[in-house]
Amino acid sequence: MDATNVLITGGCYCKAVRYECRRPLTFRGLCYCRTCQMISGGAGNLFAAVDAPTFKFTSGNPRSFTNTEHPWRPTRHFCENCGVHLTARSERAPSAVLIKVGTLDDPSIFEGPQVVTWTSEKQKFHLLLELAHRYRSGMATWKEPESCTELDAWIDGHWQEVEATAFGLIARSRDSLYAQS
Ligand SMILES: [Zn+2]
Ligand SMILES: [Zn+2]
Questions:
Q1: Domains of the chain, each with CATH number or no CATH
Q2: What distance in Å separates the CA atoms of residue 79 and residue 63, rounded to the nearest whole number?
Q3: Ligand 1 center to residue 27 CA distance, Å?
Q4: Ligand 1 centroid to 44 CA: how many Å?
Protein backbone atom coordinates (compact mmCIF):
# COMPACT_ATOMS: atom_id res chain seq x y z
CA MET A 1 0.00 0.00 0.00
CA ASP A 2 1.05 3.55 -0.60
CA ALA A 3 2.89 5.12 2.30
CA THR A 4 1.08 7.94 4.03
CA ASN A 5 2.32 11.32 5.10
CA VAL A 6 5.65 10.92 3.27
CA LEU A 7 6.88 14.16 1.74
CA ILE A 8 6.68 14.55 -2.04
CA THR A 9 8.58 17.33 -3.78
CA GLY A 10 8.74 18.63 -7.31
CA GLY A 11 9.09 21.66 -9.51
CA CYS A 12 9.45 23.13 -12.98
CA TYR A 13 12.26 22.95 -15.52
CA CYS A 14 13.93 26.27 -14.57
CA LYS A 15 13.51 25.55 -10.84
CA ALA A 16 11.74 28.87 -10.18
CA VAL A 17 8.57 27.12 -9.03
CA ARG A 18 8.79 24.38 -6.41
CA TYR A 19 6.07 22.52 -4.53
CA GLU A 20 5.62 19.95 -1.80
CA CYS A 21 2.78 17.71 -0.66
CA ARG A 22 2.20 14.43 1.17
CA ARG A 23 1.53 10.87 0.15
CA PRO A 24 -0.55 8.92 -0.56
CA LEU A 25 -1.17 9.44 -4.24
CA THR A 26 -4.92 9.07 -4.01
CA PHE A 27 -5.49 8.63 -7.72
CA ARG A 28 -3.15 7.91 -10.62
CA GLY A 29 -4.31 8.60 -14.13
CA LEU A 30 -3.51 9.05 -17.76
CA CYS A 31 -5.64 11.48 -19.72
CA TYR A 32 -5.87 11.42 -23.48
CA CYS A 33 -8.22 14.38 -23.89
CA ARG A 34 -7.31 16.88 -26.59
CA THR A 35 -6.39 19.52 -24.00
CA CYS A 36 -3.91 17.17 -22.33
CA GLN A 37 -2.52 16.16 -25.71
CA MET A 38 -1.89 19.82 -26.45
CA ILE A 39 -0.32 20.67 -23.12
CA SER A 40 1.79 17.52 -22.81
CA GLY A 41 3.22 17.74 -26.30
CA GLY A 42 0.98 15.05 -27.70
CA ALA A 43 1.43 11.91 -25.66
CA GLY A 44 -1.36 12.48 -23.14
CA ASN A 45 -1.03 13.57 -19.55
CA LEU A 46 0.12 11.42 -16.65
CA PHE A 47 -1.14 12.85 -13.38
CA ALA A 48 -1.30 11.94 -9.71
CA ALA A 49 -3.83 13.33 -7.26
CA VAL A 50 -2.88 14.29 -3.72
CA ASP A 51 -5.02 15.69 -0.91
CA ALA A 52 -5.27 19.43 -1.47
CA PRO A 53 -4.62 20.45 2.17
CA THR A 54 -1.16 18.83 2.02
CA PHE A 55 -0.13 20.71 -1.11
CA LYS A 56 1.72 24.03 -1.24
CA PHE A 57 4.03 25.92 -3.55
CA THR A 58 7.27 26.43 -1.63
CA SER A 59 8.98 28.79 -4.06
CA GLY A 60 8.00 30.87 -7.05
CA ASN A 61 4.57 32.04 -8.05
CA PRO A 62 3.01 29.99 -10.82
CA ARG A 63 0.74 31.64 -13.34
CA SER A 64 -2.66 30.04 -13.80
CA PHE A 65 -5.32 29.69 -16.44
CA THR A 66 -8.94 28.74 -15.77
CA ASN A 67 -11.10 27.47 -18.58
CA THR A 68 -14.35 29.21 -17.65
CA GLU A 69 -16.18 27.68 -20.60
CA HIS A 70 -15.68 24.15 -19.23
CA PRO A 71 -18.37 22.91 -16.80
CA TRP A 72 -15.74 21.88 -14.21
CA ARG A 73 -13.77 25.16 -14.61
CA PRO A 74 -10.34 23.47 -14.54
CA THR A 75 -7.43 25.68 -13.52
CA ARG A 76 -3.90 24.87 -14.67
CA HIS A 77 -0.79 26.24 -13.00
CA PHE A 78 2.44 26.80 -14.89
CA CYS A 79 5.81 28.50 -14.60
CA GLU A 80 5.92 31.85 -16.35
CA ASN A 81 9.67 31.50 -16.94
CA CYS A 82 9.99 28.07 -18.51
CA GLY A 83 6.34 27.33 -19.35
CA VAL A 84 6.15 23.96 -17.63
CA HIS A 85 2.71 22.96 -16.35
CA LEU A 86 2.87 21.69 -12.77
CA THR A 87 -0.62 21.21 -11.40
CA ALA A 88 -4.31 21.39 -12.15
CA ARG A 89 -7.38 21.88 -9.97
CA SER A 90 -10.97 21.22 -10.88
CA GLU A 91 -14.25 22.18 -9.30
CA ARG A 92 -15.24 18.58 -10.00
CA ALA A 93 -12.81 17.37 -7.33
CA PRO A 94 -11.92 20.31 -5.07
CA SER A 95 -10.30 18.05 -2.46
CA ALA A 96 -7.51 17.08 -4.85
CA VAL A 97 -4.55 18.67 -6.55
CA LEU A 98 -3.52 16.96 -9.76
CA ILE A 99 0.24 16.90 -10.21
CA LYS A 100 1.97 16.39 -13.54
CA VAL A 101 4.07 13.28 -13.02
CA GLY A 102 6.98 14.68 -15.03
CA THR A 103 7.44 17.49 -12.49
CA LEU A 104 7.97 15.12 -9.55
CA ASP A 105 11.55 14.99 -8.26
CA ASP A 106 11.08 11.23 -8.21
CA PRO A 107 8.60 10.25 -10.93
CA SER A 108 9.10 6.57 -10.12
CA ILE A 109 6.70 6.88 -7.16
CA PHE A 110 3.87 7.17 -9.70
CA GLU A 111 4.17 3.49 -10.67
CA GLY A 112 1.67 3.82 -13.50
CA PRO A 113 -1.91 4.91 -14.13
CA GLN A 114 -4.90 3.19 -12.55
CA VAL A 115 -7.36 4.66 -15.00
CA VAL A 116 -7.16 6.10 -18.47
CA THR A 117 -9.60 8.88 -19.21
CA TRP A 118 -10.91 10.38 -22.41
CA THR A 119 -10.08 7.40 -24.58
CA SER A 120 -12.68 8.80 -26.97
CA GLU A 121 -10.21 11.52 -27.90
CA LYS A 122 -7.09 9.37 -28.04
CA GLN A 123 -5.06 8.97 -31.21
CA LYS A 124 -4.28 5.68 -32.94
CA PHE A 125 -0.66 5.91 -31.78
CA HIS A 126 -1.67 6.13 -28.11
CA LEU A 127 -1.28 2.74 -26.48
CA LEU A 128 -3.50 1.17 -23.84
CA LEU A 129 -3.10 -2.57 -23.60
CA GLU A 130 0.13 -3.01 -21.68
CA LEU A 131 -1.20 -0.95 -18.83
CA ALA A 132 -4.48 -2.78 -18.70
CA HIS A 133 -3.15 -5.96 -17.21
CA ARG A 134 -0.59 -4.48 -14.92
CA TYR A 135 -3.16 -2.81 -12.70
CA ARG A 136 -5.87 -5.41 -12.56
CA SER A 137 -7.57 -5.59 -9.16
CA GLY A 138 -10.92 -5.19 -7.46
CA MET A 139 -13.38 -2.39 -7.89
CA ALA A 140 -16.11 -3.84 -5.73
CA THR A 141 -18.54 -0.99 -5.45
CA TRP A 142 -18.44 0.15 -9.03
CA LYS A 143 -21.73 0.51 -10.77
CA GLU A 144 -22.53 2.16 -14.03
CA PRO A 145 -23.41 5.79 -13.28
CA GLU A 146 -26.46 7.56 -14.63
CA SER A 147 -24.83 10.91 -15.10
CA CYS A 148 -21.52 12.74 -15.04
CA THR A 149 -22.47 14.12 -11.63
CA GLU A 150 -23.02 10.64 -10.25
CA LEU A 151 -19.78 9.40 -11.78
CA ASP A 152 -17.86 12.30 -10.31
CA ALA A 153 -19.38 11.73 -6.88
CA TRP A 154 -18.42 8.08 -7.05
CA ILE A 155 -14.83 8.88 -7.97
CA ASP A 156 -14.64 11.46 -5.20
CA GLY A 157 -15.82 8.88 -2.67
CA HIS A 158 -13.62 6.05 -3.87
CA TRP A 159 -10.24 7.50 -4.64
CA GLN A 160 -8.51 4.56 -2.97
CA GLU A 161 -10.65 1.96 -4.61
CA VAL A 162 -10.46 2.99 -8.20
CA GLU A 163 -8.27 0.40 -9.80
CA ALA A 164 -8.10 -0.58 -13.40
CA THR A 165 -9.98 -3.85 -13.15
CA ALA A 166 -12.27 -2.69 -15.81
CA PHE A 167 -9.56 -0.81 -17.59
CA GLY A 168 -11.09 2.11 -19.41
CA LEU A 169 -14.49 1.45 -17.84
CA ILE A 170 -14.65 4.82 -16.18
CA ALA A 171 -13.25 6.42 -19.28
CA ARG A 172 -15.83 4.79 -21.49
CA SER A 173 -18.65 5.73 -19.14
CA ARG A 174 -17.52 9.29 -18.99
CA ASP A 175 -17.18 9.40 -22.74
CA SER A 176 -20.68 8.16 -23.32
CA LEU A 177 -22.12 10.44 -20.68
CA TYR A 178 -20.23 13.38 -22.02
CA ALA A 179 -21.45 12.67 -25.52
CA GLN A 180 -25.03 13.03 -24.30
CA SER A 181 -24.50 16.36 -22.60
ZN1 LIG B 1 10.20 27.27 -14.53
ZN1 LIG C 1 -7.12 15.64 -20.15
A1: 7-180 (2.170.150.70)
A2: 6
A3: 25
A4: 21
